[in-house]
Amino acid sequence: MNTELFIARRLFSEKESRHHLSRRIVRIALAGIALGLTVMILAVAIVTGFKKEIRDKVIGFGSHIQVVNYDSNFSYETAPVSREQSFLPLVGALPNVKSIHPFATKPGIIKTDEYIQGIVLKGVDTLFNWDFFSKHLVEGQLPDLTTPERSPEVLISSNLSALLLLKVNDPIFMYFINQEEQIPRVRQFRVAGIYNTSLQEFDDLFVMGDLRQIQHINSWDEKTISGFEVIVNQFNQLEKTESEIRERIVHYGVSQGSTLRPLSIVRKYPQLFDWLSILDMNVWVILALMVLVAGFNMISALLVLILERSSMIGTLKSMGSKNKNLRKIFLYLSGFLVARGMFWGNLIGISLLVIQKYLEVIKLDPTSYYMDVVPVHISALNIFLLNAGTIIITMAMLVIPAWFVSRISPDKSMRFD
Fold first, then answer.
1. What residue spans define the domains of the chain?
2. What DSSP element (H or E) covers 361?
């Protein structure tokens, strides 16, 4: 039988101590642990949710990896490539690759009777996954790209709709300029639907339409496109997947007249992902502060517990108990107290996350935060790591004050009693 654990349990459940000074000190320490863990859970869930929401929106417009002509720069006027590439089956067989589809982009201008706006027409085919735009569709429907002829339907953002006074089923005229042509090419489209992602930089820019329209505007044949978009399964393996795609393009890209290169979404928009990475530093600062506060609260509580139990310590020492056994008693007791505070911290934190996730209580200004509600990402792994880190660091901080029991002598403590 573990004598130290038995004594610690008796002290933990002792009803007589409710009137002791230590009871109030312990309650303050437990409240600090519960509050600290709640703040940590909320901070991690909100920051990871915010990063995931922004990342998913950017990927929705540009996929995880784009395979484009090496001569193409970061503009949307891309150099053409052939749709028939020998490396496509090899790239599609990579374990982290989910799907591949062709795309094309063409900068242009939308002109109405009163307004004019620069845009980028992005053309896709029937292989394109519309789940992202279906999620953010606010009015109308998605463009129908299954027609035998070029589809005139396009999807515009609510920002463009409000700016240009356009509604669903309204005609829309776009002007495009090709190299070595002085007269712009005009195409008439029809607004099939309106989307809103709250990511203004992209909402003001992209108009989704038929890939065949861009091929016709650029005088390309049906086998010529701007490149391929690759969707991956796991974002944390994006860099590795990009290297694997690059290797297969180099070895199997034998099409004449063009050299292809993969471009990840992180490298395409580095300033955006650098900004998101800065948020991690804020989270680490919050975690460090909360753990330190919880640890110092428990140190204070442990010292008070030791002082109040000095008579017990003296009695046990007089009966032959060693200092290390007495330290174990108070470390076990501290562990029980920390676990109680963590229980309430988990209960409050997870409850608040669930309420926000499903009821969306706290709203945001989309123009400032790129979303209309506070996003939360509930991860069992993150919650487990927070709990494990909190109890390990807190208990490690309590080892040093637990040595205070060795300074209590039996004769003085028992005489004091």
1. 3-57+273-416, 71-258
2. none
Whole-angstrom Cα Rg for the chain = 31
DSSP string, 93-159: TSTTEEEEEEEEEEEEEEE-SS-EEEEEEEEE-TT---HHHHHTEEEE------SSSPP-EEEEEHH
Question: The tokens of 187 are what?
Answer: 């195409």
> Letter for the amino acid at 161?
S
Give me the amino acid identity at 397: M
260-264 and 65-69 as β-strands: parallel, antiparallel, unpaired? antiparallel
Query: What is the spatial distance between Cα 250 and Cα 86, in angstroms, rounded to a whole number?
Result: 11
pLDDT digits (tens, 9 = 90+) for 221-277: 999 999 999 999 999 999 999 999 998 887 654 454 468 889 999 999 999 898 888
With tokens 């709640």, the residue in question is 38
Nearest to 307 by CA among 7, 17, 15, 22: 22
416, two tokens: 């004091």
Cα distance between residue 332 and residue 311, in whole Å:
19
Q: Give the least confident one: 262-276, 307-321, 347-361, 377-391.
A: 307-321
Using alpha carbons, select from 72, 131, 74 the residue that is nearest to residue 101.
131
Average pLDDT over residues 57-70: 93
CB 12 within 8 A of CB 337: yes
H-type alpha helices, 229-269:
238-252, 265-268
- What angle separates helix 21-62 from helix 380-402, to the nearest 10 degrees? 150
Q: pTM for the complete prediction?
A: 0.82
Q: How confident is the model at residue 50 (pLDDT cuts 50, 70, 90)?
A: very high
